[in-house]
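Input (structure):
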């Protein structure tokens, strides 16, 4: 399961990033060489950027890419370090679990609305919040399992 979910997030990040690059290049090309720029490219760029971040957020947590302050953490003994990591990961699960639950309601609210220039349902844009929250929760739960195994040793 983890392997497929990670692969899904990686491909989602790549496709969203390529979409962002493509839509920005189209905007640049249109502004210099065409009489009118397509109105949808700005909105598409924003949507691709949002999804690139949403797909990548869980992967960043999985590979421990977020910024951390190690000054005080390194001075703690190893048992306290593991317990502190457990608390931090638990708080991450709590925060993003709440965000995931409420983002489902947000997606439902966006269903009748449509974006101005692309005329797609705003629930597509709002779904990125659920995707990000769920992926962060998933990888934080896996990290909690790893830490608990280390504590039990």
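Output (sequence):
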């Amino acid at each position: 399961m983890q392997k497929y979910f990670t692969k899904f997030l990686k491909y989602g990040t790549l496709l969203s990033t390529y979409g962002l690059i493509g839509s920005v290049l189209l905007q640049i090309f249109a502004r210099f060489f065409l009489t009118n720029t397509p109105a949808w490219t700005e909105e598409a760029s924003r949507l691709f950027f949002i999804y690139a971040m949403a797909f990548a957020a869980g992967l960043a947590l999985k590979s421990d890419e977020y910024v951390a302050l190690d000054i005080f953490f390194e001075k703690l003994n190893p048992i306290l370090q593991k317990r502190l990591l457990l608390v931090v990961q638990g708080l991450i699960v709590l925060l993003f679990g709440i965000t995931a639950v409420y983002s489902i309601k947000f997606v439902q609210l966006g269903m009748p609305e449509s974006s101005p220039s692309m005329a797609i349902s705003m629930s597509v844009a709002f779904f990125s919040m659920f995707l990000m929250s769920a992926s962060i929760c998933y990888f934080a739960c896996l990290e909690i399992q790893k830490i608990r195994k280390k504590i039990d040793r």
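Notes: The helical segments are 2-33, 40-62, 78-110, 122-152. The chain has four helices and no strands.
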